[in-house]
Amino acid sequence: MTVITGFFERYGEMLIRAIFVHIQYVIVSVMIGFVIAMVLGILLSRVPGISNYAIPALGILQTIPGLVFIGVLFIYLGIRPLTIIIALSTYAVFPILKNTYTGIVNVDPALKEAAKGCGMSNIQILFKVEIPMAMSAIFTGLRMSTIYTVSWAVLAAMIGLGGLGEFIYRGIDTNNNVLIVGGAIPAAILAILLGFVIDLVQKLVTPRGLKGE
Questions:
Q1: How far apart are the first and last CA of the chain?
Q2: What is the pTM of this model?
Q3: What is the pLDDT of residues 84-94, one digit of tens each?
Q4: Where residue 142 sits, what CATH number does that domain have?
């Protein structure tokens, strides 16, 4: 308890600021990534021939080490929040994109034919049939992307852009385990809390008839 009390007395204000910055990075990046991923996922679901090559190609972005990608962006953009936002948004895209595409293409064709028979246009089928039926897959991708982004946002501290990574990297540099844990535990808790929020949002936006599926 003495160690914990001492930590909060010394670093409490800094920790609050770091958490706030970390949350900003995560929310902004995931929102941008979500919009891009949804648009690409919907477009690729209309052209299966292209998607067979495009999705694996986009997946290659996930294999680029975060430090390398941020380093390249740093050269051209310098030390500013935009650098980390672009990097995190890029990494946030693929899990949502892949699940959006998979969810939409796996919608039962009979349901779409039935919707056509009711006089629905392609746009109406997309928003009233395909996306609602793919909702579970989309939110699974969103949850994965958010959790990943919480961990990737730690890298912001590597170029002096704050966040919970400040504690972790400072702790590594000074061989201070208390600082490392002081950054890692809030990041883990943040990931869990955001996961709960996403689950809640999913329950709120999922049509009642699909909640049991």
A1: 46
A2: 0.90
A3: 999 999 999 99
A4: 1.10.3720.10
